[in-house]
Structures are given as C-alpha cells and as structure tokens.
Design goal:
Belongs to the prokaryotic molybdopterin-containing oxidoreductase family. The chain is α/β, with parallel strands linked by helices. It is built from 24 helices and 26 strands. Helices cover about 30% and strands about 20% of the residues. The strands form six sheets. A six-stranded mixed β-sheet has the order 6-5-17-16-15-7, with helices on one face.
Length: about 700
C-alpha cells in the first residue's frame, strides 16, 4: 500500500464478469474509496481501465445500497418489507430449506448463482453447500458454452497466443467483441501495434460500434453469419496460394478435405449470406493471408447465436490455414481459462458431490420454475432457492416465464445482493452483500494470464456481509458445518488453494499482487501440437464427443440440433431466421457503461446510456413510418417490449440492436429486453442465444 498526502493507494482486481480482470490501484481516504486506476506495472492492464470501474466509488458509496436484511411483509413483488436481524433472516431461510427437503427431497432446493463476482471464494463457495446437502446442481449455460465449445472443437485446449502479443502483430483481427466497450485492454495492445508497427486493425461485428471506429477494415455482417465469412476467406486463401501448406500438413487433420469442401464456399456465396460485398471478403482474406503475424482475437458476441459453436470453430480455422500460429504476434486467442491450475476442490466441496444429483440448466430457469418436465429432468419441482451473484429476473432469457416462476406462492427464495434488483424485488428474504473492496478474494484473468489478489481494503457499510458468511451460517443451521471446508475464512481458503496449487499464499500475493502464469511460446502457440490426442488441429470436429470445460453432464446430454452440425467449417442455418411475420433480427449487444445488469444504478452510467433504445436502419424506419425518438413496439411469440427508436445506418437492413440490459423498470411496461430472447439450447453443449432473436416491429 502506497501513501500520498492523506490518500493511500490500495491494490486490488476488478471482480466483474469481464475477460480483462484488470489490476487496480484504488485511492482510499477516510475509509472510503475514491478514484480507481489501472495498475501501470501490470503488463496486461497497462494502466488502462474502463470508465465505469474508474468511477467505482459511485457503486460502493451509492445511497441505495442494501444495508440490512429484509423479509417480505406483503404480497410478492409488492415492495412491502420489514427489517430483520441476520440471525432471524438466516433462521428463516434454513427453516424453509429444511421444510422443502423434508417434503420434496433435497433436490427441490436449487442454489442459483453466476458471475456477479468472479472471486473464487465468494463466487464458488455456494457449491460446497450445494454438494454437502445434495441440492440440485446448476449447469452453467448463460455465457461461455458456445464459444468454448467451438474453440475446443478445433484447438483441443482452452488457451492461445499470449494476448500481450497483439502489440507485436502486423494485423489484429477483433472479431465478435466490442472491445472498446467491454474489454478495453484489447485495444491497448492493438493500438500499440498500430503505433509501433503500423499494424492494421480489422473489426468484425454486426453493427458499427465504438471498436469499429478504430478499424482500418470494418466488416459489418448479419448476425449468425460469421461461419460463412470464415469459409469464404479460407476459399480465397486456398485459391490464391495464401494457405501455408507446410503448416497444414504438419499440424492439421484433413487440409485436403477442407480445401475440397471450400470449393463451393466462394465470396459470392458468402456475400449473399453475410451482407458483405465480394470485395470486402476478398480484401480481408488477402490481408490475413499476406500478413503472417495476424492475431485473431475472438470474442463471445458472435457465438451468442444458435450456430455459435460452429461460427467459433470456423473463425478459428483461418489461422490454421495461414499458419499464423507459428509466429510471435500471430495465432488466435479467446480465453486462457485452462492455464491457471488452481485447485478449487475444497472451496467447491468436490468430495461431497453426488453424480446422481440432477443438474438444472441455468438459462432455462423460467422453464424449471414453471414446472417444465423436460427442464426438471425427472426430479421434483424447485421449492426453495438461494440466489447469489446474478439477477435472473432481468438477465435470463424468456423473462416472462422466469418472472412467472419466481412469483409462485409455493416457491421460497432468498437473494443476497448489493442493490434491490429486479430479482430481489420478488424475493422472500433479501440479504445485504459486500462489494469486492470489502472482502478478501482472488481472481483469474480469462482474457490474459494473471492470477490477482483482491484483499479487503475498506469496511462494509451497514450490515452488509460477504457471500462466504451466508454460506457458513446456512451450513451451520443445516447441519453440515462439520464437513471439511466449512469453518474457514476466505484467507484460509486462499492459503489452502494457493499452497495446493504451488502458487504461494495470501501473504505472498499481498506482496506480489499477482502471478503471471502464461505458458511458454510453444505451448501457447501449439507448436508442440494441439490439445487433441493426435496433436492435430481439427477441421473435422467430433461435435458430440470432444471434451470441453463446460460439457453438459450425462443427465442433460448433448444439446440442440447437434445432428445438423457440419463435417467441416460451414454456415448452418440453425439461427432464428427472419420470416414474413418477424422480418427483423434482434441482437442485444452490451452497452458501454453497463456490465450485464451491474452499473445500471450508478449516476455516471445512467447519464451516459440515457434510456432503452432500439437501433433501427433509416431505410427500415422509413418503410415503417418510424421517426427518430418515436416509441416502437417489438415482439415475437414470447412477448412484446416498448423502446424508443434511434435511427442508425451502422448495420444491415433487417437488423435491429438493443444495447445493454436495462432494468425491467426502466422500460415502459416494466418488462425488459429478455422478454424476447429464447432459452432453447445451442448445439452441441448448450448456451443461450441472446443475439439470435426474430421480431416484428411496429410504430406506436
């Protein structure tokens, strides 16, 4: 901790669900945080963080933070509460959990969580309670699955070229991520390559966003058509002698079969599918084919379609065709999530996990809570829940079903939260939660290579308590606190995990701040072979048998229309295509100053974002008689939502964009954008297709 005048500088890490996981220097004065800065001496953060985290004091010291436990005193959702002691609130939760277990079995209790914090202790300790009690498991599907699955099908391991190598590239392809808005450090290293090496930046997305404005070549395509673009690019590479045949022969499974398959995947074919011109496709292909040090930074956005895993795999095939992996500053990257080697078995209570306990699909919470037999996987109805680190009434697909389920009179659920979210408003018990500067934890940077400590640096306000406290207190009341792993502080858990993983201790991390665990060049670039048993990159993936970090458990099985997945990279029309009744395709892209449903309460973010709007192409608007700022209604079989039109020519006709996950109450009818999104699973290993929604639109 450094001191200057009456301000001291504390060190931490950003806890939010973002690949950047920035190293932070935080101003502290009189027990409160002030401005937050990126750590200049961290080689990935490099002193740069997003504006919303720089203003984090707006969240920590917000007047609307929850400070005391509350118990519902009126009808569900009515907003009538009475304050309670922690003892009384926890007693009530335990009583209702035990009641549900006695009447319907332990699997009628479903602890539900996700990534409101990415800290390994505060996020994941809920699993220890889940396993110790035999409660229903959760199959995480709302974020990573299509991307990770598509990557694994090709590379066989979830790692890639050191993301700091972007600064050493001659061409950086930013595909499917609005990095300026969602992971600003990507731009730090890409812009450095431009300044120092005159590198070209290519951006591929479904609309002209802030990252596009930094591009030398900007490709705006239709949602769900990335696979077609990738195939046409590879067609040109083979056609024009830009494929690295020596690399292909050594490192890939069937280059001859791929080349034959791509004969018909011409730029003309892809142009009709993507909306790009033939010239745009060929220019891109020649640029990456002639630039050996091309770095493909592949994001989550373009995988949030029902053909998302196929699209990821197709895009990943390009650097295997060019041989870019062989060069520093070349290759590809999506996530380093497999490199960290942290042993979370004690935190998560692996020793108590029963393989016979069912898993419930996180994204299908609406179907689960409304009694859908298929979603329940033959088990009992869900009668009780503890919800931590997520806001399903706002962020989950099929929002009407989710709210219908949460409104059930026979469902008891408690929410541990920082603010009164859409989900908390419907709960039986609401518990006040700490923020990251108020508890100890450790973080992994999926978008880079650092493990970073986030120690407690200020006291929590009111009666806010950390996630671990809730888990420990419930374990005591539920009779499992004697089991190994319970009764430990966050620091004790971190010491155990770091020691088991050979990475030191809490105190060593307090001194060093982070550990850089980046694999060597040959490992990161797969020079010693890709992650499959034969060491080959797979152009012909085994869509249903390839291991993946979040493959569905056997009780759930392979997902979606997996029979339709292609033999080679391709465009597959598994998307929710526009039709005469629903002529528009909706993507719900991230807003710059929100992060999922976080920061929607902070003054700076609310001022920047304004109001929920729908980006609509001016020509489409003219055809519909819609003017700038006019109220419009969009809908499909799942429901309808009202927004204000913003005329914008930065996407293809027939595409509409609604940025950000605004709170439901910010919308005219109290229903948010996820009323429209579907929860049907993405093939082959699951996921949620948030950017793959057909809608109709009418002026109001």
């Amino acid at each position: 901790m450094n001191t200057h005048a009456n301000i001291r500088i504390a060190h931490s890490a950003c806890p939010h669900d973002c690949p950047s996981t920035c190293a932070l220097d935080i101003e502290i004065r009189d027990g409160q945080i002030g401005r937050v800065h990126g750590a200049k001496d961290n080689s990935y953060t490099a002193g740069v963080i997003c504006a919303k985290v720089a203003r984090y004091a707006e969240r920590v010291h917000h007047p609307d933070r929850l400070l005391k436990p509350k118990v519902r005193s009126g009808a569900r959702g009515e907003g009538a509460w009475k304050e309670a002691s922690w003892e009384a609130a926890l007693d009530l939760i335990a009583e209702r959990f035990l009641k549900a277990e006695a009447e319907f079995g332990a699997q009628s209790v479903w602890p539900y969580q996700y990534a409101g914090t990415m800290g390994l202790v505060q996020r994941d300790s809920i699993h220890r309670l889940r396993h110790a009690k035999g409660y229903s498991k959760q199959f995480d599907t709302i974020c990573t699955n299509p991307a990770w699955t598509g990557w694994m099908m090709g590379a066989g391991a979830l790692r890639g070229s050191d993301p700091r190598e972007m600064a050493k590239s001659d061409c950086v392809v930013i595909w499917g991520t609005n990095a300026v808005a969602t992971q600003v450090n990507v731009m730090t290293h890409a812009i450095r390559a431009r300044k120092e090496r005159s590198a070209k930046i290519v951006v591929i997305d479904v609309y002209d966003n802030a990252t596009m404005k930094q591009a030398d070549l900007a490709l705006v395509l239709k949602p769900g058509t990335d696979g077609a673009l990738a195939c046409a690019v590879m067609h040109v590479l083979f056609r024009e002698g830009l494929a690295d045949r020596d690399y292909l022969a050594r490192y890939t499974d069937d280059p001859a079969g791929l080349e034959a398959h791509l004969q018909s995947r011409t730029p003309e074919w892809a142009s009709a599918i993507t909306g790009l011109s033939i010239a745009e496709i060929e220019t891109f292909a020649r640029l990456v084919g002639e630039t050996k040090r091309t770095y493909f930074r592949l994001g989550y956005g373009f995988t949030r379609n029902r053909n998302g895993a196929v699209n990821m795999h197709a895009a990943l095939c390009i650097p295997a065709v060019t041989g870019a992996w062989a060069y520093e500053g070349g290759g590809a990257f999506h996530s380093n999530s497999s490199i960290f080697g942290l042993d979370k078995s004690l935190i998560e209570g692996h020793a108590y996990a029963d393989p016979n306990v069912r898993s419930l699909d996180q994204s299908q919470i609406g179907r689960v809570l409304t009694g859908d037999a298929e979603a329940l996987h033959g088990g009992p109805p869900v009668k009780a829940m503890l919800i931590q680190n997520t806001n399903p009434a706002n962020v989950a697909p099929e929002q009407r079903l989710v709210k219908q389920g949460l409104m059930r009179d026979d469902l008891f659920f408690a929410v541990h939260e920082q603010f009164m979210t859409d989900t908390a408003l419907l709960a039986d018990v609401v518990l006040p939660a700490t923020m990251f500067v108020e508890h100890d934890d450790i973080y992994r940077g999926g978008g880079h290579q650092h493990i970073l400590l986030g120690p407690k640096i200020v006291d929590a306000p009111g009666e806010a308590r950390e996630n671990l406290y809730v888990i420990e207190e419930l374990a005591r009341r539920l009779g499992v606190d004697h089991l190994e792993g319970f009764g430990m502080s966050a620091r004790e858990h971190l010491d155990w995990m770091l020691d088991k993983s050979g990475l030191g201790s809490f105190e060593s991390f307090r001194h060093d701040r982070w550990a850089d665990v980046q694999p060597d060049f040959d490992t990161a670039h797969f020079i010693n072979g890709f992650g499959h048993a034969d060491g080959k990159f797979r152009f012909r993936p085994d869509w249903t048998n390839t291991p993946s970090p979040n493959r569905p458990p056997e009780s759930i099985g392979v997902q979606g229309q997996h029979q339709a997945l292609p033999e080679f990279p391709d465009h597959v029309a598994l998307i929710e295509e526009a039709d005469p009744e629903h002529p528009f395709r909706l993507a719900t892209s991230p807003a710059r100053t929100f992060l999922n449903s976080s920061f929607t309460e902070t003054p700076g973010s609310k001022k920047r974002e304004g109001r929920p709007e729908l980006m609509l192409h001016p020509e489409d608007a003219s055809a519909l008689g819609v003017e700038e700022g006019q109220r419009v209604e969009i809908g499909n079989r799942r429901g309808e939502v009202v927004l204000h039109a913003r005329l914008f020519d930065g996407m293809r006709r027939g595409v509409v964009i609604a940025e950000g996950i605004w709170p439901n109450h910010a919308h005219e009818r109290g229903e948010g954008i996820n009323v429209l999104t579907g929860a049907d699973s993405i093939a082959p290993y699951g996921g949620a297709a948030f950017h793959d929604t057909k809608v109709w639109l009418r002026a109001l």
